[in-house]
């Protein structure tokens, strides 16, 4: 049974309704807009945010940083994973770096990157650093799992390296990346926004969230969280549509 076969629109709508109802009931009981604003207050703030002049610029700035991080990370991971597959020294050299990148706290690295780079470039680097180990491991493991008999057949028939890459390695990598692209792209988007909160670029969702935090405007912070969720769902929808189109579903 696949994840998609478990999805049911009716149950999703009911779940959302239950969550909103619980939220509203708790907000009424708490009766403190600073701690937990009501659903309708947040809904009104979402409407106000969408109508602001710089809304589109804020959204596009963060999405652009996310896509830049995604592309840089993916390209670097694919290149280095292929090199590691063919070279043991490179594999062991990168192994140390990958372990370090996985272990280092995200917030600590954000602070370090802000010291090294500009406020506009820092969120992009943070997105790359967080997602690179994921793509690298996925690509490298997909190459290591290639059928040995198939590789032996390529050797017997003396298939050129170029043809081997085109007919075997690239399709294997594409299938592997397809499995993690949704979750990784969502992660990159969240990490980039976290970087914006600290870096404070002129335009970015993270910058405006930090501003609302300074104003103690809980309602608008939650409003932006919901907007971010909608954007991530939009990403997932596009990727699913493209994937189904490529597979002919």
From TrEMBL:
Its main location: membrane. Residues 59-239 form the ABC transmembrane type-1 domain. Keywords: Cell membrane, Membrane, Transmembrane, Transmembrane helix, Transport. InterPro entries: MetI-like, MetI-like_sf. SUPFAM superfamilies: MetI-like. Pfam families: BPD_transp_1 (PF00528). It is found in: Cell membrane. The keyword Transmembrane helix applies. The chain crosses the membrane at residues 12-35, 55-86, 93-115, 121-144, 165-189, 221-239. It is a multi-pass membrane protein. PANTHER family: ABC TRANSPORTER PERMEASE PROTEIN MJ0413-RELATED, ALKANE SULFONATE ABC TRANSPORTER-RELATED, MEMBRANE SUBUNIT. Belongs to the binding-protein-dependent transport system permease family. This is ABC transporter permease subunit. It comes from Clostridium saudiense. The lineage of its organism: Bacteria, Bacillati, Bacillota, Clostridia, Eubacteriales.
């Amino acid at each position: 049974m696949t994840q998609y076969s478990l999805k049911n629109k009716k149950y999703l709508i009911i779940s959302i309704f239950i969550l909103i109802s619980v939220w509203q009931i708790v907000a009424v009981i708490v009766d403190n807009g600073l701690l937990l604003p009501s659903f309708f207050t947040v809904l009104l703030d979402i409407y106000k945010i969408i109508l602001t002049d710089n809304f589109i610029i804020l959204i596009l700035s963060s999405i652009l940083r996310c896509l830049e991080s995604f592309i840089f990370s993916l390209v670097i991971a694919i290149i280095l994973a292929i090199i590691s597959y063919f070279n043991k020294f490179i594999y062991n050299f990168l192994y140390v770096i990958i372990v370090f990148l996985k272990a280092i706290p995200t917030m600590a690295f954000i602070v370090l990157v802000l010291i090294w780079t500009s406020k506009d470039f820092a969120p992009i680097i943070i997105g790359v650093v967080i997602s690179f180990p994921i793509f690298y491991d996925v690509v490298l493991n997909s190459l290591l799992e290639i059928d040995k008999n198939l590789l032996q057949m390529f050797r017997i028939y003396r298939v050129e390296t170029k043809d081997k890459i085109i007919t075997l390695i690239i399709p294997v990598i594409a299938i592997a990346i397809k499995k993690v692209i949704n979750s990784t792209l969502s992660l990159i988007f969240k990490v980039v926004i976290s970087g914006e909160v600290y870096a404070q670029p002129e335009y970015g969702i993270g910058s405006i969230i930090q501003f609302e935090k300074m104003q103690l405007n809980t309602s608008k912070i939650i409003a932006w969280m919901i907007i971010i969720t909608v954007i991530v769902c939009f990403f997932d929808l596009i990727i699913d549509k493209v994937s189904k189109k490529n597979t002919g579903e």
